[in-house]
Amino acid sequence: DPDSGDNGLLLYSLVSGQTDEFDINEHTGQIFTVSVAGKVGTFNLEVQAADQGTRGLTARTTVSVTVDSSSSSNVVILVLNQKINVVERNSAEVQRVLEDKLEWNVYLVNIYSNELERKARSSTNETQVWIIAFDEAHQEVPAEDVKSKLREQRADIELELEKVFSASVSAAVAEDPAASTSPELVAAIVLGVLLAGTFIAFLAYVLLDLKRKRKYKKQDLVKKVEIMEAIDNPWAADKNGSLKSLEKPEHMNN
Fold first, then answer.
1. Quick one: which of 26, 123, 171, 215 is 20 to 30 A from 45 by CA?
2. Taking the domains of the chain in order of start, what are their residue ranges?
3. What is the pTM (predicted TM-score) of this model?
4. Which residues form the Cadherin domain (predicted)?
């Protein structure tokens, strides 16, 4: 808009379409993703530009965004301690810094945060930048090589990004899910196994003790029956088959 003053001040907005998946910078008109993970296809977004003059003139256009699924195994995740809206606003500078320090062409696959709602986009100081690097032959650089180079250049990358964000920056390479098991989790698993083993041993002891008590109780019952039978019959056979007196007859006491 060639006008000056408020008549030339434009604000951009998404009028309709998949506004849950996309958002727009109202000052620059830059469209960025909010969350398109696992989604493939073409999204048609209706964008409006409105000046701030008294008459409030507007114009609209349709922007088609195609999201392709990526089967690449060379995506590397760089975690920055910055809010997602700040990273998105400076994504071009982030890409420039990475290309300069890695000495490869870098493609930003996605800028992601666990905070998906727009109202919470500035609440979490952790943003994931998903990247793929390409060499001079336009071939994907293996993920392990990219990770190694990122770790080597980490200090320089953080220093340059501090200039971009005007704040202290931490840039860490995210580990693969299989290799990211924390020591605390390992300790918890080991402790769980030990507790399970202790419980099984205790349960076995309890069952064995109950079995032993039942055996002794049965033996005591047999003895009581034998004694009662012997009292009823003062002359009882011993283990050799001979008779013995458990109770003296009355005439023998005399």
1. 123
2. 6-67, 76-179, 181-227
3. 0.45
4. 1-77
